[in-house]
């Protein structure tokens, strides 16, 4: 048999029909649903008299509109209608819903893996571009539009043209203070926001193998920011250890049998990718974005770029426009940029390890008097676990606000919104104009860098941070 | 779905790279549960300032581009969120065709579900369209999907490439859920095989 990449194995396992010149019909194993991109899809089913074909493979939660304070009181009537519509649709079509009263509710890409719904080798879709997160387990997971949400609800299939394959090989070793967020931000800064358009990425290399599951999810989550709909990491013991015992994972002896099958998914030795990219981790330093696209980032040790010095006319124009929006002076050292707000959370960095890392930085310190800082756990389970470990107290004693689970300020569809001109160190995934609120200025960083920025009132190089580990919570 | 065969329409430029779907339709308008009525919010934060005043410099606010149905822009158009509200807003505003050097995958795919034709041309060809649009008020393009060619009535003729399946899909205005459901037997057989294999 010919050598295959992991992507090809998963793809071939799910193709129901492949006709020359047509997209393949691909079977979908898991469909995650949230309140923003689903109402029109359910309405479409209703209008055409169709049912949800596999409610047992469909799971819903509400996350985008959810207030992180006083969560049952959604004051915006349109937000409330969207949340209520999901409740009604799930009831009508028999879909399992983790609603606001569920202890398991959370950001869809935090909750799914936590429940053990995400398995190696599955095809997973959701009406959300950050579905790529689930690729961390070796699942082929990608975001779809609402028409495709309806398609999957009705047929449990999608019509898909086969994407190309790309290996992104991380070479070298991670230095202390360098996070998974820095790996992915660094990669996108180097190669741009569309280097992987049309591709499924497989991340490989020692620096990937040594990442925890949470860290792998951070990397795969932002694949879409490099243009790739999906990013994959081969499953291994780290994956299996994370999944073992979770609600929807195979149980008992069945787990080991399944894990053996999952192990066979990895790319065959000698299989080839359409494209191979390399990224050196040895020299990587903490990353901060300065512009309005995730590719507009740099090292914390560097300065805001001077647009005139960029190589192409389009880059110069885009950088000048971005700096105007961001209110930044070219040449300003990144460590001299003061901030007003800090957001720690999101499907990129709202998991327990992220909160532990941020809490370790914050412990024993106080946030700057000029800064408002919020910590938003990615799910109800993350919140409970963090509280068990006393992380909430570390944060609140340092002056951070401790909130309930939700998408929060990642996209500002809820009450957590930046005011015009406010500058935010954010652990989320997008720094687009207006993403966190009209006129808001977003700088993407790791949880450690965000916590340090909250305390210093400006960006600092977390590698030189003074940890006050002797202080007990 | 409404078929797309040929159209002639006024061209409007949005001269930026990486136009993201947050810019096309900001998040505060994603809360609606309908498919229609998004056009009024297209490029909202570029069309109106924080106080609700019209930003006259933005192309879509200029009188010469009123009624445009062909949008031209720069590389990586439609990047970011998967929100189909972006093509819904573009269509509802009146655009049927978007021309750019490249598109983000999910946005590109979403266009076809809504009878919008996204056309990829080279950077040079797109630049040529920007120049012609700027030079002539009332500049129109004819998009012929049957022949896969763009013309402007004054000598310009640019052939474009499009996947044949996608082209037929638009030309015939097909319902792709209906197409998939034709394979119901194959889907059921696939499910039975997997159940038997314990997957």
Describe this structure in words.
The complex is a heterodimer of chains A (473) and B (199). By secondary structure, chain A is of the alpha/beta class. Chain A is globular. In chain A, helix 2 packs across helix 5, helix 13 crosses helix 15 and helix 13 (352-362) packs parallel to helix 16 (447-456). Helix content of chain A is 32%, strand content 16%. Chain B has one domain (6-196): Aconitase, domain 4 (Alpha-Beta Barrel), CATH 3.20.19.10. In chain B, strands 4-3-2-1-5-6-7 form a 7-stranded mixed β-sheet. The chains are: A alpha/beta (473), B alpha/beta (199). The interface between A and B is large, with 62 and 49 residues.
Question: Can you lay out the helices and strands and say which pair or pack?
Answer:
The complex is a heterodimer of chains A (473) and B (199).
Chain A: H1 6-14, E1 15-17, E2 24-27, E3 30-33, H2 39-48, E4 58-61, H3 77-93, E5 96-98, H4 108-114, E6 123-126, E7 140-143, H5 146-155, E8 157-160, E9 164-171, H6 180-191, E10 199-204, H7 206-209, H8 213-221, E11 230-232, H9 237-243, H10 253-263, E12 275-280, E13 287-289, E14 297-299, H11 313-326, E15 341-344, H12 346-349, H13 352-362, E16 372-375, H14 380-388, H15 391-398, E17 401-402, E18 423-426, E19 441-444, H16 447-456
Parallel strand pairs in A: 3-4, 3-6, 4-5, 6-7, 9-10, 9-12, 10-11, 15-16, 15-18, 16-17, 18-19
Antiparallel strand pairs in A: 1-2, 2-8, 13-14
Helix pairs in contact in A: 2-5, 6-8, 13-15, 13-16
Chain B: E1 6-14, H1 21-24, H2 44-47, E2 70-73, H3 85-93, E3 97-100, H4 105-112, E4 117-120, H5 123-135, E5 140-144, E6 149-151, E7 157-159, H6 164-172, H7 176-181, H8 184-196
Parallel strand pairs in B: 1-2, 2-3, 3-4
Antiparallel strand pairs in B: 1-5, 5-6, 6-7
Question: Can you give keywords for this protein?
Answer:
heterodimer; A: 473 residues; alpha/beta; five-stranded parallel sheet; 16 helices; 32% helix; B: Aconitase, domain 4; seven-stranded mixed sheet; 8 helices; 33% helix
């Amino acid at each position: 048999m010919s050598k295959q990449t992991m992507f090809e194995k998963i793809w071939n396992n799910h193709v129901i029909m492949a006709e020359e010149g047509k997209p393949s019909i691909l079977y979908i194993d898991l469909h995650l649903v949230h309140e923003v991109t689903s109402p029109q899809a359910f309405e479409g089913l209703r209008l055409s008299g169709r049912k949800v074909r596999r409610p047992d493979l469909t799971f819903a939660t509400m996350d985008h509109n959810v207030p992180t304070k006083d969560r049952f009181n959604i004051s915006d009537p349109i937000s409330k209608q969207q949340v209520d519509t999901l409740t009604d649709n799930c009831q009508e079509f028999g879909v399992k819903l983790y609603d606001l009263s569920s202890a398991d509710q959370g950001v869809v890409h935090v909750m799914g893996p936590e429940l053990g719904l995400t398995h190696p080798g599955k095809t997973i879709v959701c009406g959300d571009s950050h579905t790529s997160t689930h690729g961390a387990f070796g699942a082929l997971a990608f975001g779809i539009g609402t028409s495709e949400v309806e398609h999957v609800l009705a047929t449990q299939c999608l019509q898909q043209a086969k994407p190309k394959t790309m290996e992104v090989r991380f070479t070298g070793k991670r230095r202390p203070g360098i996070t998974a967020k820095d790996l992915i931000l660094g990669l996108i800064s180097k190669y741009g926001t569309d280097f992987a358009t049309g591709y499924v990425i497989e991340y490989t290399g020692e620096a990937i193998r040594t990442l925890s599951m949470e860290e792998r999810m951070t990397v795969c989550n932002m694949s879409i920011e490099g243009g790739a709909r999906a990013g994959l990491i081969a499953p291994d013991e780290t994956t299996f250890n994370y999944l073992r015992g979770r609600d929807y994972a195979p149980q008992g002896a069945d787990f080991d049998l399944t894990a053996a099958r999952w192990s066979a998914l990895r790319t065959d030795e000698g299989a080839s990718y359409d494209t191979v990219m390399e990224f050196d981790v040895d020299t990587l330093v903490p990353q901060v974005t300065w512009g309005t696209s995730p590719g507009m980032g740099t090292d914390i040790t560097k300065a805001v770029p001077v647009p005139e010095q960029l190589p192409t006319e389009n880059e110069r124009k885009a950088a000048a426009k971005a700096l105007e929006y961001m209110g930044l002076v070219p040449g300003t050292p990144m460590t001299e940029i003061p901030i007003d707000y800090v957001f720690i959370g999101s499907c990129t960095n709202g998991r327990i390890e992220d909160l532990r890392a941020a809490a370790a930085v914050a412990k024993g310190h106080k946030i700057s008097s000029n800064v408002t800082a919020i910590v938003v756990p990615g799910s109800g389970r993350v919140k409970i676990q963090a509280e068990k470990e006393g992380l909430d107290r570390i944060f609140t004693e340092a002056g951070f606000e401790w909130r309930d689970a939700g998408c929060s300020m990642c996209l500002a569809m809820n009450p957590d919104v930046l005011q015009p001109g406010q500058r935010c160190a954010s652990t989320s995934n997008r720094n687009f104009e207006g993403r966190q609120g009209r006129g808001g200025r977003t700088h993407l960083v790791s949880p450690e860098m965000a916590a340090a920025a909250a305390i210093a009132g400006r960006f600092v190089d977390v590698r030189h941070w003074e940890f006050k580990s002797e202080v007990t919570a | 779905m409404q078929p797309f065969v040929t159209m002639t329409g006024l061209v409007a430029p949005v001269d930026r790279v990486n136009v993201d779907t947050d810019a096309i339709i900001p998040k505060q308008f994603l809360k609606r549960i309908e498919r229609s009525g998004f056009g009024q919010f297209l490029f909202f934060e570029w069309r109106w300032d924080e106080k609700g005043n019209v930003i006259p410099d933005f192309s879509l606010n200029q009188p010469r581009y009123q009624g445009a149905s062909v949008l031209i822009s720069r590389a990586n158009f439609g990047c970011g969120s998967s929100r189909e509200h972006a093509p819904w807003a573009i269509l509802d505003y009146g655009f049927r065709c978007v021309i750019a050097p490249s598109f983000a995958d999910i946005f590109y795919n979403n266009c076809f579900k809504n009878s919008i034709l996204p056309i990829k041309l080279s950077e040079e060809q797109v630049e040529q369209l920007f120049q012609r649009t700027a030079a002539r008020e009332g500049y129109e393009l004819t998009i012929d999907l049957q022949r896969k060619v763009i013309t402007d009535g004054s000598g310009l003729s640019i052939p474009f490439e499009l996947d044949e399946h996608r082209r037929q899909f638009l030309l015939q205005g097909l319902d792709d859920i209906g197409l998939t459901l034709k394979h119901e037997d194959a889907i059921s057989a696939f499910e039975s095989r997997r159940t038997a294999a314990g997957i």
